[in-house]
Specification:
3 helices, single chain, 2 domains, 7 strands, five-stranded mixed sheet, two-stranded antiparallel ribbon, rod-shaped, alpha+beta
Length: about 170
């Protein structure tokens, strides 16, 4: 009973409905929903649904223990469903700079004709000149040939050699 001045319904001395509890749960649900819209996560949506469920239990006359149970069960069930779905991924295996859904250049083949001593080069790609750098994980001096774009560091493509013939790509594929 957070606000004892609001009306309540009692039956045989047992508190059946405290209207203030219901409005507090619905208020928590509304605040969580507004914060969800501002942050774009799904976790506050779970809090909003769980709080609304607890508010319904309060409206139906459930005591505080049942309201808390409904809030907990709905919150945990929603969390389990959310984590088992593909909507939330735990720890992306690659950063956005290596993600082909974010950078369409990842995986493309380029031809490097000449390397500098610093393992960098300038290439012609998509109608413009781009700077490339050999993947630091690779050892040895780079040789002219075909390379695959594996990462993007700012405006520099990180490349790794492609196994196969060392021929420049045709204009239609680059």
């Amino acid at each position: 009973m957070l606000l004892p001045l609001l009306p309540s319904v009692r039956h045989g001395g047992v508190l059946l409905l405290q209207e203030s509890d219901m409005w507090i749960w619905f208020g928590v649900a509304a605040v969580a929903l507004i914060l969800e819209l501002l942050t774009g996560t799904f976790f506050l949506l779970l809090v909003a649904v769980a709080a609304a469920g607890a508010g319904v239990v309060s409206w139906l006359g459930g005591e505080l223990a049942w309201q808390l149970l409904a809030f907990s069960v709905l919150g945990i069930a929603g969390f389990v469903i959310l984590k088992s779905s593909k909507l939330v991924r735990r720890g992306s295996k690659s950063s956005a700079s290596r993600n082909t859904d974010v950078n369409l250049d990842i995986g493309q083949i380029v031809y490097v004709a000449d390397w500098t001593p610093m393992n960098t080069a300038v290439i012609q790609y998509r109608g413009a000149k781009w700077q490339v750098r050999l993947d630091p994980a690779l050892g040895g001096p780079p040789a002219p040939g075909s390379y695959r774009i594996t990462d993007i560091d700012g405006i520099v493509f990180i490349v790794a050699p492609v196994s196969g013939p060392d021929t420049p790509p045709t204009p239609s594929s680059a």
